[in-house]
Task: inverse folding
């Protein structure tokens, strides 16, 4: 059994850790409420953006536009959204697991792969992989990302695709369902989806011309999808960090209770031993 001094040190150390995890839990809970509101408020806009992209793809002229051009997939780009810090449960691991599955499938299909990461955790993982090109690393966009923050990432993705450096772009992020439910998903971003041939073509007049209007509109709609992926990931990160730190706090409480019981047993044993020694000494004196 550990000594009383050791047990007291352990309890003091765990109490210090509990204070940290409790504070992190409260901070994450506060950030989660705001992030959840942001993600929910723009989700309908994202859905409308996807629907609008499908409607634009029914125009005959879009098949020759760079963002809608389908090529044989020889080089694929993954945009992976992770965090900069840990203590977020399986948030990063789930996203990187999907990336690994995609890399294995691409390797079997003889497809070369490049990766753009948002967050250092994804960059640290990709740097350890062979035959994978880490194209760029972006820092997380903070709790209140703006369009100006997302624009460099958007421009990199679009220019890389339009220049023919990649033939397919996918975004891997975590979709926020609820506080206790978040799911990593793979979003096919580019080429923009073409509508099936059975659908009725969209007949519209464009000014100045269909190419200019459709390309600028498609760029903004792609930006909306990336924006929503970042917001969903941000809410998921805060939710998973809140749950992870809550579990850590609960475990700290359990350990403190266990060590406190062990400390009380050790103190009782020490008191019992001292009483026995006193009684033994008094008996020895009486016999003398």
Result:
């Amino acid at each position: 059994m550990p000594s009383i001094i050791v047990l007291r040190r352990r309890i003091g150390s765990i109490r210090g850790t509990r204070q940290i995890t409790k504070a992190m839990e409260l901070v994450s809970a506060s950030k989660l409420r705001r992030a959840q509101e942001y993600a929910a408020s723009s989700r309908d806009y994202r859905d409308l953006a996807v629907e609008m992209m499908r409607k634009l793809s029914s125009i005959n002229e879009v098949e020759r536009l760079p963002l809608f051009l389908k090529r044989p997939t020889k080089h694929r780009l993954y945009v992976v959204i992770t965090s900069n810090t840990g203590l977020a449960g399986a948030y990063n691991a789930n996203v990187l697991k999907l990336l690994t599955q995609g890399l294995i499938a691409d390797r079997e299909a003889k497809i070369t792969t490049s990766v753009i990461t948002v967050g250092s955790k994804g960059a640290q993982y990709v740097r350890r992989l062979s035959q994978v090109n880490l194209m760029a690393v972006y820092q997380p966009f903070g709790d209140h990302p703006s369009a100006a923050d997302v624009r460099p990432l958007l421009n990199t993705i679009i220019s890389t695709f339009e220049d023919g450096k990649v033939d397919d772009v996918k975004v891997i992020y975590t979709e926020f369902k609820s506080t206790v439910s978040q799911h990593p998903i793979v979003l096919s971003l580019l080429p923009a989806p073409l509508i099936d041939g059975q659908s009725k073509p969209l007949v519209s007049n464009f000014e100045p011309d269909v190419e200019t209007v459709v390309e600028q509109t498609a760029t903004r709609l792609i930006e909306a999808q990336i924006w929503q992926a970042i917001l969903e990931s941000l809410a998921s990160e805060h939710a998973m960090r809140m749950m992870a730190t809550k579990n850590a706090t609960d475990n700290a409480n359990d350990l403190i209770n266990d060590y406190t019981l062990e400390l009380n047993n050790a103190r009782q044993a020490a008191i019992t031993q001292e009483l026995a020694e006193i009684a033994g000494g008094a008996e020895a004196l009486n016999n003398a």
